[in-house]
Amino acid sequence: MDSVTQIVLGAAVGEKILGRKIGNRAMLYGAIAGTIPDLDVVIGLFLDPLSAVEIHRGFSHSILFFSILSPLLGWFIARREKDSKVSVMNGAGLVFWALFTHALLDAFTTWGTQLLWPMAYKFAFRSIFVVDPLYTIPFLFCLIMAMRKARTDYNRTQWNNRGLKISSAYLMLTLVLKGVTYYKFQRAITLSGLEVVALETKPTPLNTILWTATAETKTAYWIGDYSFFDTRPIVFNAYPKNHEFLDGFMQDKTMLRLVDLSEGKYTVTKKDGKLYFNDLRFGLLNRNSTNPEFAFCYELLPSKSGFKVREVPKTRAEGLLLLQQLWKRISGN
Fold it and tell me: What pLDDT, on a 0 to 100 scale, did the predictor assign at position 289?
């Protein structure tokens, strides 16, 4: 999830564990701990584009990392709060749960998390977008209300608990919505007669009203969307896999890394004599079936040792256009 959301969640967890003892400082410690896993993004700034994506939500989002860091930061918190009789165990517990809930929340997104790193498996429920105001805003409001109360005030605890309950209930609701939309997409595929080998659904940016599905057949990926305000049948557009464009290159190390990173869900396109690798997990930037642009697209650059990659940059104008299209599409077809 986005940084603001993780700060709010971490602060609420800190308050839950040590708020009665040290007040708003518990929120501060929780907020800081809740942002630590995403420091892998900073490390990625010094790496090539592919390596930066590979390490994101890896080791820094794992139980192993949490287990190592928690006692260290717990000792630091205990030292600073010795007058409040905060033990190392108390501090370590705050840090561990702030870190763990960060990764657990990320597991609900499309990207997923490697909680069991070094195992490569990613937990990804794909039921919430990485930025969702309906999750964050009520949670933030409850946290601010809690901050305004004295640490011994019962209402402080109530407001914090309310934020945790509302946000958790919303997460559970996203799983229900995912189940409903999965059924809708599955029924549309059955009616269309497509021979699908895999189906994946996820919400579109900033909401859980408009959902998108990627259905895989032998030669193409079919992408469609569904809004809870729709009145017409779901329509799927085909995007050829074109995997044959990579024939003879599938033993290249860079190519194998790209395929692994995309979890095998990718298309290859040619444009102006250049070859592009499109990671389908994060959807489209536009809905032009003849000239599609994907959220994660890499230009394949031949080199003496095989291939190098360059991530195709996104412009501010593309982002604004996507938001305009989404807002219009959410209201129904």
Answer: 64
Q: Helix/strand/coil (H, E, C) string of 237-248?
A: EEEECCHHHHCC
d(CA 301, CA 14): 47
What whole-number distance in Å separates Cα of residue 301 and Cα of residue 29? 45
CA dihedral 299, 317, 201, 207 (to 10 degrees): 150
In sequence order, the 6+-apart residues with CB closer than 8 A to the CB of 20 are 151, 152, 157
What is the DSSP code string of 8-75?
HHHHHHHHHHHHHHHTHHHHHHHHHHHHGGGGHHHHHTTS-HHHHHHHTTSGGGSHHHHHHHHHHHHH
Burial of 132 (0-12, 13-18, 19+ CB in 10 A): buried
Helix 154-192 vs helix 133-147: crossing angle, to nearest 10: 180
pTM of the predicted structure, to 2 decimals: 0.92
Cα torsion 9, 11, 15, 21 to 10°: value is 160
- Distance (Å, whole) CA 185 – CA 201: 8
pLDDT tens for 5-33 read 999 999 999 999 999 999 999 999 999 99
In Å, what is the CA distance from 53 to each residue of 158, 269, 288, 298? 39, 21, 26, 12
Q: What is the mean pLDDT of residues 106-117?
A: 93
**pLDDT tens digits along 31-89:** 999 999 999 999 988 888 888 888 999 999 999 999 999 999 999 999 999 988 999 99
Alpha helices (H) in 193-283, listed in sequence order: 253-261
Nearest to 296 by CA among 38, 54, 134, 28: 54
CA distance 121 to 144: 37
Residue 213 has pLDDT above 70, yes or no: yes
Query: How is residue 16 written in tokens?
Result: 């839950």
Beta-carbon neighbour count of residue 248 at 10 Å?
8
Structural contact between residues 38 and 169, judged by C-beta atoms closer than 8 angstroms = no
For the chain, where are the E strands, in sequence order? 198-203, 210-216, 220-227, 236-240, 266-271, 274-284, 294-303, 306-311
